[in-house]
Structures are given as structure tokens and as C-alpha cells.
Amino acid sequence: MKNLIYISLLFSIISCTQERTCKDLHEGEFNYADPELSHIEITRSSNSQIEINTETKIEAHTNIEWISDCEYVLTYKEFKNAPEEINFMVGKKIEAEIIDINGNNFTCQVRTDDTDESMEFKIAEE
């Protein structure tokens, strides 16, 4: 009987510690893990994303096209509270692939016309 209780507890613990998947990151609130970018808040729905710089109040609005569970393309749609000269980015695309998920942090490989780099993000505290 004791063994049955231990096995039951073990299954309960395993089911509560399921690892996150890319699909879990399709929606939610996130921040950059880099402390120099921690003032940027990201809110993502299944088809759009808004990044708000809490210091300057500039908002970047993008559309999201999910290519697969772990790959997506962001297309800049509009900027709010931004200088006029930043509008050249409207229509520009960012390709991203979630390459690692570790607890509340995840890493994306991010590609644009000018860059190809890894960026780490974290799920915002609830």
C-alpha cells in the first residue's frame, strides 16, 4: 500500500513539472533578459506583439506570422510615441526561432537584413 502511495505522489509531481514548449510562448508577457533592455515590456497575442519602452514610452506594434511552433516572423506595423524618422522600419521583418527554453527563460535566434544573433527573454512575473 505504501508503494502505491509513493507511486501516486511521484506521478503527481511529474505532471506538475511539465516543461514549457514553444507553443506556450505564442501568447503572454515577456521581458528581455539583458538588464540593459529590461525596461522594454513585450505583450504577445497569437497574431500580434507590442513592445513598450517604459522609459521613452515608444511602442513598436508588429504582426506575427507563426511559421511553425518555434519559428515566427514579426513585421513592423506601426510605432507610437516615436520620432518620425523611425517610421522607415514599418514593413521591415524580423525572423525569429525559439532555440532553447529553460524554465522561465527562452532564447531566440533573431535574423534581420542587418543582424543574426541570439537574444534571451524571460516570461514576465505574474
Descriptive account of the structure:
This protein is mainly β. It has a single domain (20-123), classed as Uncharacterised protein PF14869 family, DUF4488 (Lipocalin). It has one helix spanning 2-16, and strands at residues 28-32, 40-44, 48-53, 59-66, 71-80, 93-102, 105-111, 116-123. The chain has an 8-stranded antiparallel barrel with strand order 1-2-3-4-5-6-7-8. Strand 4 (59-66) and strand 5 (71-80) form a beta hairpin.
Task: Describe the secondary structure blueprint for this structure.
Layout: H1 2-16, E1 28-32, E2 40-44, E3 48-53, E4 59-66, E5 71-80, E6 93-102, E7 105-111, E8 116-123
Antiparallel strand pairs: 1-2, 1-8, 2-3, 3-4, 4-5, 5-6, 6-7, 7-8
Brief write-up:
With 126 residues, the protein is mainly β. The chain is 12% helix and 47% strand.
- The CATH H-level superfamily is Uncharacterised protein PF14869 family, DUF4488
- Mean pLDDT, to the nearest integer, reads 88
Category from helices, strands and their pairing: mainly beta
Number of strands: 8
Biggest sheet, in brief?
8 strands, antiparallel, barrel
Extract low-pLDDT stretches.
1-17
Radius of gyration: 18 Å
Binned strand content? over 45%
- The CATH C-level name is Mainly Beta
Which descriptor suits the 3D outline?
A: globular
> How do the SSEs run, as a string of H and E?
HEEEEEEEE
**Total domain modules:** 1
Distance between the termini: 39 Å
